Amino acid sequence: GSEMCIRDRNFINYTIEKSPYPISIVVLQDGKIIGINSKYGIDYPLTFHSNIGSTLKPFLYTFYRENGVSKEETFNCITTINNQKWNVKEAELPSKSVLNIQEALLTSNNNAFINAANKIGMNNVLKFIASLLNKEESNIHPSSILGATSNGISLFELTKLYADFFLNNDDPFKNECKQLLCQIAKIKLGIDINLSLIHISEPTRLALI
C-alpha cells in the first residue's frame, strides 16, 4: 500500500543521507524496482556499469561451501598458493596468516578466496561465475574471482542477481551466507538486519546496499 511505499522511500533517503559512504540502494518487488536512490543520483544504479568486485564473494562463498569447503578449513590469506604467483593486494591487512572461509568473507580477503578456488578447481569456479553472470566462459578468467567482469554490471542487475540467487530459503549454505552478510551490514554500515523479518519469497523484496 501507499504507507509501505512511503516508509520504504523514507528509509532509503534517510540511509543515503546519513551514510558516510557513497552507497546506493535498490529495492525490488516481483523483480521490479519499487525503491531506488544513490549518493551519485537516482539514475546511477541503472546506468553506471562497473566490475562486480567483492560483491561476488557471497556467491563464491556459497559455491565453496556446497563443494566441500568446511567452516573450519583455513587458507593462506597473505599470498596465493598457485603457479600463477599473483601479487594480490588486500584492502584490509589480515592480522594472521590464514583465515577460514567465513573470516575471509567478513574481511573480504582476496588471497583466501583465490586459494579456496584452487582447492576445488579453478575451472569449476570459473564455470560457476560464467553461469551466474550469464557470460561466455571465454570472457571469464581467474581475475574474475576478484570481480573483474567484461563490460561490467549495473547495481540494478547486481541487486536482481542477489534476489534470484537467495530465493531458496531452504538452502543451508545460502542461509549461512545471509547471516554473514547481516554481520557485514552491521560492522561496515551500522545497519541491523533482522533475518526473521526477511523471507525472500514471492513477492520478492530485497534491498542491496
Q: Which strand order does the major sheet show?
A: 2-1-7
Terminal-residue CA separation: 23 Å
Provide mean pLDDT, rounded: 84
Order of helices and strands: HEEHEHEEHHHEHHE
* Strand runs, count: 7
Principal-axes shape call: globular
- Helix share, percent: 40-55%
Give the low-confidence spans: 196-209
Whole-angstrom Rg: 17 Å
Helix segment count?
8
Give the assembly state of these chains.
single chain
The percentage of residues in β strands lies in: 5-15%
Structural class: alpha+beta
Give a structural overview.
This protein has 209 residues and is of the alpha+beta class. The chain has eight helices and seven strands. The chain has helices at 2-18, 44-47, 57-66, 101-107, 110-120, 122-133, 155-165, 172-189, and strands at 24-29, 32-38, 49-50, 74-76, 98-100, 153-154, 205-208. A three-stranded antiparallel beta sheet has the order 2-1-7. Strand 1 and strand 2 form a beta hairpin. Helix 3 runs parallel beside helix 5 and helix 3 (57-66) packs antiparallel against helix 8 (172-189). The longest helix has 18 residues, at 172-189. 26% of the residues are buried. The model is unreliable at 196-209 (pLDDT under 50).
